[in-house]
Give the backbone structure.
Amino acid sequence: MLRIYILLVLHVFLLVPLRVCADQEQAVRFGSVAEDTPAVMHQRLTPLTDYLKAAIGRPVVLMLSPDMPTVIKALSNGEVELAYLTPVAYLNARKTGNATLVAKVVTDNQAYFRLEIVVREDSSIKTVADLAGKSFAFGDPAALLQRAVVANAGMPLERLGNRAYLGHYDNIARGVLNRDYDAGIVTDTKSRKWDKKGLRVIYSSEQLPPYNIAAKDKMDHALFLKLQNALLNLDGHVPEQRRVLDALGSDYNGFAQTSDAEYDIIRKLIKPFQR
């Protein structure tokens, strides 16, 4: 009887470290839309997941999705613990799954961005009112914020001429520059890239909160803080950490603190476009 008791006690004590070990090894799943080919997205995001793995002491696994609604659903359902989201995608994940902001990105030393309407330098279009009846290039058909900014600038979408959806901002800039479209909407970082190549800004939105990393509802608080601190401490002046940021994009400087209230401006802009 004593032998059986001793074996039971040993069994319990042996299980404890095994469970702790299992918890420590449980992977954090990091979701993102495949904005480019899967191979390119892995090149962009794997250095970040490797950095987070080293910072928190447990695996961080990249999980790519074909589109943003799939990423939002995965985060809302707890199929991933983290996700790299657009401002509007965060609001949808917040609404459907109570997602929580971890940090926002900083690019070109700005923790915000603007959307800007651009035309060719030699265009006769001088103001937003001049866009009536003109062809206009947008990015993704699902990008509510782009349409909302144009409408908020004073140009109802139905008053525009032909509308095209070209995907990436560089495609929009090229389309306008090549005279395929009279005007288009790009981020301020893209307009700065292209302004010396023949584009001119006729409208700039107010400051908008940028891309972010959000966490699933009810994430373990200690894990949340570890992940948040790791992101906030990512330092572009440290060579190995600079490589992590360069993989994301040459204009990435790091991450900054943010809050849900900061995204209220996005809520206000897109409200007329939501069903």
Remarks:
- Residues 174 and 180 are 8 Å apart (CA to CA).
- The mean pLDDT is 89.
- Residues 115-204 form a domain with the D-Maltodextrin-Binding Protein; domain 2 fold (CATH 3.40.190.10).
- The radius of gyration is 23 Å.
